[in-house]
Design a protein that fits this description.
The protein has 407 residues and is an all-alpha fold. The protein contains 16 helices and two strands. Helix 1 packs across helix 8. It is globular, with a radius of gyration of 21 Å.
Length: 407
């Protein structure tokens, strides 16, 4: 029997405690590795191996699908075996997996099924790591808001640094070199986590795993604004984000080269940093309404690639995409964290993540065949139209449009 437990944790007296510094370092270096891998290195590796845009879509989907499908079970594992143990196991597994893929590219060109298998197993590791990481933050920092803010900043900065470094290395070295460095980042993360002295004393009260999931689903499905956003974003992931992630990066690589892709993805990360900083300053009365309007920034990235604009203009479009997307995420997650009771927040968060991501692989895998049949540009124009439909739907649902901010 698994389930809910109560626990006693002695919180540190300051934010930058020893354990939080180690957690911060682990998260920083692992997210750097993630951003080196997806989408920059994956896109280049698959294209260089001759598997085309369709192969890129399959590869990106293989990495995303396990996270969407297994994150709920990752939360259960973290509760069962303690978060740090699960996180360390996930890091060690990803070190070995990415190292093996680096060797495969060093000695030749691996088959597509081998690439997809490694990426799927890596996504499974991410599904195990993410719930534990989220649950460890309040156990290592007294001021959770400041802790989350600090980690959010470093995540955004690594979104800039990861693709830039990957693009530079790919321009002067090889895919195997980037994958080796990527594998090493997860090893460093595991060492940092193992050095933590976090101790959790739990009581023995437990309920069934099925009941825990049922209670989380009840809390999730009882809020129209919450499940409404997720349903709309399932359509968004399938028709906008999934195809754009596949075709956008592929077309940039084909037309302008790997180095340019790294630069443009870094500008996306910079836009995300700016969007997060704007969200810190602005506190709209209706956060989801404001966030929905901000998503229009994605349109500039879509059109810049569709119209074959020069790289500087594409970079600006990607920066606006990152800015609008980051602002929406802050507005949405802040609403969830302030509207959902703390004792069920983790399970509701898992349903949120699963629902938000489950349709992205469908969009990623279908983008290549659709581009071969219709052409990449018509597919991106369709995605642009569906982006406007997404915004209209978010603004049309009263429960979403009129949700008020909680101070």
């Amino acid at each position: 029997m698994w389930g809910t437990t109560t626990e006693t944790v002695q919180l540190p007296k300051r934010l930058w405690s020893r354990d939080f510094r180690l957690l911060f370092a682990a998260r920083t270096v692992s997210i750097f590795g993630d951003q080196m891998l997806v989408p920059t290195t994956v896109t280049v590796a698959v294209l260089q191996s001759g598997y085309g845009i369709t192969g890129v879509g399959y590869a990106l989907a293989a990495h995303t699908a396990p996270l969407a499908l297994l994150v709920i079970f990752g939360g259960a594992l973290a509760d069962r075996f303690t978060p740090v143990r699960v996180m360390v196991a996930a890091d060690i597994a990803r070190t070995m997996l990415h190292g093996a893929l680096a060797v495969a590219f060093a000695v030749g060109e691996p088959a597509l099924w081998q690439i997809l298998t490694v990426l799927a197993l890596s996504g499974t590791g991410a599904a195990a790591f993410q719930p534990g990481y989220v649950s460890v933050i309040p156990r290592t920092a007294r001021d959770v808001q400041q802790a989350n803010a600090a980690i959010r900043v470093t995540e955004s900065l690594m979104t800039v640094a990861g693709p830039a470094v990957a693009g530079l290395l790919l321009a002067f070295s090889s895919v195997s070199v980037v994958l080796t460095i990527d594998a090493a980042t997860f090893g460093v993360s595991a060492v940092c986590l193992l050095a933590m002295r976090l101790k959790i004393v739990r009581s023995a009260q437990r309920t069934s795993f099925r009941r825990d999931l049922a209670l989380g689903w009840q809390e999730f499905s009882s809020r129209t604004w919450l499940w409404g956003v997720i349903v709309i974003f399932m359509v968004f992931q399938m028709t906008v984000n999934g195809p754009f992630l596949t075709l956008g990066q592929s077309l940039i690589t084909i037309e302008h080269g790997e180095g340019t892709l790294g630069f443009i993805m870094s500008m996306f990360g910079l836009g995300s940093v700016l969007g997060g900083l704007i969200a810190v300053r602005l506190k709209p009365r209706y956060p989801l309404r404001s966030g929905a309007v901000a998503i229009v920034g994605t349109l500039f990235g879509l059109l810049a690639v569709s119209l074959h604009l020069p790289p500087p203009m594409i970079a600006v479009g990607y920066a606006l995409w990152g800015m609008g997307g980051a602002f929406w995420l802050v507005m949405f997650h802040s609403s969830v964290q302030t509207k959902i009771p703390p004792d069920v927040l983790g399970r509701v968060h898992a349903y949120d993540v699963a629902g938000s991501l489950v349709m992205r692989p469908v969009g990623q895998m279908s983008a290549g065949p659709a581009a071969l049949w219709l052409g990449a540009v018509p597919v991106l124009f369709f995605s642009s139209a569906m982006l406007l439909v997404t915004i209209a739907l978010l603004l049309a649902v009263p429960a979403i449009r009129n949700l008020r901010r909680v101070d």
